[in-house]
Design a protein that fits this description.
This protein is of the alpha/beta class. The chain folds into 3 domains: 268 residues, HUPs (Rossmann fold); 102 residues, Up-down Bundle (Four Helix Bundle (Hemerythrin (Met), subunit A)), CATH 1.20.120.640; 54 residues, no CATH class. 47% of the residues lie in helices and 15% in strands. The chain is built from 18 helices and 16 strands. A 5-stranded parallel β-sheet has the order 5-4-3-10-11, sandwiched between helices. Helix 9 crosses helix 10 and helix 10 crosses helix 16. The relative contact order is 0.11. Bound molecules: adenosine monophosphate and zinc ion. The site of zinc ion has 5 residues, from helix 7.
Length: 479
């Protein structure tokens, strides 16, 4: 089966055909490094990590180039550095390291030019300021941008196609423009490519330019870096659906305006929001859980990854404790299946087999993922494979299913531990906590207060503190 992806540009699921199968190119908007990544940020990173793994599998390790930027120049960075009384460099270095550490625990492939992870590039915006300035100069020369009072603005009216990706027409945009219009803007929708430095800005966040000292706008970063690494036309551009407008719309306008005749990205892929009680998880709403919060509570990275992938990438995902508990149970079952098999023996069997059923499976085992990254369907297939491992009476059959299980899981970035590590490690990380909490809730329901207290004390002796919530559930944390 060929790979199908939902393309936001056409609003259809389409067969994916790369511009050059020897160099399949993908760009994804990365984090702004001012604070810990929350689960919404992580969803985006994990989803495109699966797509990257799949592309490498289909086209070959060295035939896929994936760039995911680090935004290390931004108003929120300046504000946070000021608030924390540290330099911008200190802040961005620290937060980038946090991001790398947290994503590594989630099994996200790191930036590397080594053969083992294909070509994954993680450019920093501050290393590409000169590329951004050159692009802005091209835009001015092409009549798409203008300088005004130390700013450079993109003229939205100069691009008749503006709004195509998000389905907004210019008149609609104008009618909806509620923001106060700065007097240097020719049109309310014009957006910033370059803005002047403030008098009290940290010098490391301002840069010399033909328009004076200042900073690039956020949108131009991605246009400049994607062109630098992937060329003016490339295959896939990804990001959260919140970025579709205005960020991605502006990226298209800038890139096509700077390089007339180019189409920028052929496929636009957008992941859905991660929500909490139906509301988008975000820093500004204060309803966020960071990846680190969960890891500190003893939740395994692979459990978080599984929970993030259990819903199809472009559907909303409502985060809950239950989702996490179910993910843990499912992973336990998969590891249990794996523990019955000798994967290496299974690999040899599979490679030498002329069994029709096995060959069929090999042809189709990635079909769910190729069908627009249908991770839930892929998980269902994995659970069935684990069930086969457990229930098949013949060892060779277990080995074969175990091998298929491991191969499929590798595309999803799970089952990366040995079953032994998984089960022993998880006992140390408080694996018995949830059953005890459940038993305590049952004891409280039965008004058996002595038993409830006994369980609380038993957990306390293990360094686990309980917090009862008003809704009847119980949270726990390490002392
Ligand atoms: P930011 O650091 O806010 O620029 O966001 C980095 C990435 O995380 C972007 O690709 C966003 O689209 C994505 N993102 C932020 N919040 C969420 C959310 N609640 N659900 C899914 N993706 C999100
Ligand atoms: Zn971007």
């Amino acid at each position: 089966m060929t790979l199908y992806l939902h393309n936001t540009l056409t609003r259809k699921k389409e067969p994916f055909e790369p511009l050059d199968p020897k160099n399949v190119r993908m760009y994804v908007c990365g984090p702004t490094v001012y604070d810990r990544a929350h689960l919404g940020n992580a969803r985006s990173v994990v989803v495109y990590d699966v797509l990257f793994r799949l592309l490498r599998h289909i086209y070959g390790l060295e035939h896929v180039t994936y760039a995911r930027n680090i935004t290390d120049v931004d108003d929120r960075i300046n504000a946070t550095a000021k608030q924390r009384k540290i330099t911008i460099k200190q802040l961005t270095t620290e937060v980038t390291q946090w991001f790398h550490d947290d994503m590594a625990v989630l099994g996200v492939l790191p930036a590397s030019d080594s053969k083992s992870s294909g070509i994954m590039i993680e450019p920093k915006a501050t290393d590409h300021i000169s590329g951004m300035i050159k692009m802005i100069e091209r835009l001015i020369k092409n009549g798409k941008a203008y300088a005004a009072q130390g700013n450079v603005l993109f003229s939205v009216k100069s691009m008749p196609d503006y709004g195509h990706l998000s389905g907004r027409v210019q008149e609609e945009l104008e009618a909806g423009a509620r923001v106060k219009v700065e007097n240097y803007k020719r049109d309310p929708n014009d957006f910033v490519l370059w803005k002047p430095a403030d008098a009290d800005d940290d010098p490391s966040s301002t840069f010399e330019s033909p328009w004076g000292k200042g900073r690039p706008g956020w949108h131009i970063e991605c246009s400049a870096m994607s062109t630098h690494f992937l060329g003016t036309d490339f295959d896939i551009h990804g990001g959260g659906s919140d970025l579709m407008f205005p960020h991605h719309e502006n990226e298209i306008a800038q890139s096509c305006g700077a390089f007339p005749g180019s189409h920028f990205a052929k496929f636009w892929v957008h992941n859905g929001f991660l929500t909490v009680n139906g509301e988008k998880m975000s820093k500004s709403l204060g309803n966020f859980i960071t990846v680190r919060n969960l890891l500190d509570k003893g939740v395994k990275g692979e459990v978080v990854r599984f929970a993030l992938l259990k819903t199809k990438y472009n559907e909303p995902l409502d985060w809950s404790e239950k989702l996490l508990n179910d993910a843990k149970k499912n992973l336990d079952y998969l590891y249990r299946g794996l523990s019955t098999a000798n994967v290496q023996a299974g690999r040899e069997l599979a490679q030498n087999s002329d069994n029709e059923k096995i060959r069929e499976f090999f042809i189709h085992y990635l079909d769910p993922l190729k069908d627009d990254l249908n991770t839930p369907a892929s998980f269902t297939a994995l659970l069935l494979l684990a069930q086969q491992c457990i229930e098949q009476p013949v060892q060779q059959a277990k080995d074969l299913y175990g091998f298929l299980l491991k191969e499929t899981a590798a595309m999803l970035g799970i089952l990366e531990h040995s079953p032994q590590e998984w089960f022993q490690g998880s006992a140390a990380a408080g694996d018995n906590v949830q059953p005890l909490i459940d038993a305590r809730i049952a004891a409280k329901k039965a008004k058996n207060w002595g038993e409830a207290d006994r369980i609380r004390n038993e957990l306390k002796a293990q360094g686990i503190l309980l917090e009862d919530r008003p809704d009847g559930t119980t949270d726990w944390r390490r002392e």
